[in-house]
Amino acid sequence: MPYVELRFYAELNDFLRHARKKTRFKIELNRRTSVKDLIESLGVPHTEIEIILANGKSVDFSYIVKDQDDLSIYPMFESVDVTPILKLRDAPLRHTRFVLDCHLGRLARYLRQFGFDTLYRNDYSDDELADTSAREHRILLTRDRNLLKRSIITHGYFVREFDPRKQLDEVIRRFDLRSQIIPFGRCTRCNGMVEAVSKNTVEHLLEPKTRQYFDKFWQCTSCGQVYWEGSHVKHMLKLTDEVLNSESS
To answer: pTM of the predicted model, to two decimals?
Structure first.
């Protein structure tokens, strides 16, 4: 029976059965198939993959697997230039923009607070998520690995962590985003840009105690939401400091 030999590297092992993790293994080749379809049949979404070597030579997703091929599959290197080897998509998205599935609402708020252009609705369908990611060149963040297998999606990531705070560290680390953080850069409600405004500009929108005790204000240029220097700001500054100084990020 024809066969191929495979080895997955680094975090790609998260998607494999235990017996296949961090080792080279063989599988039967019982049909004509592309390397993309073969890899995804093992549970690994193509959006997680940056480099495929077949018998030591770089190939793309359309490569037709042959009997006794030796395949090495490497994860995305969003922050490292590996162009001399081969990249399976055009380029890292240096203007980092995201679209998130319905399970990642709190992470969406964190990313917006850090200034990242982040689309989120709790009623996005899978078709909408895939289309938005492809059409607007956004990185799709999701807990649904099957969604990432859609061929239309070129930039996506399966979020491993369950806790939103840990998810934030994971995404910041994965896409090397610390240098792009702009605290209070976007509105947590609608994703619009936030800018500093004078107290006189927004005074008519404030509650009496807010008007009395605070003098610094910011406002969303899209939905008009007003922000002020309360406990939320202190929490956000503390969170920013934690992320920027985290050795794991």
So the answer is: 0.81
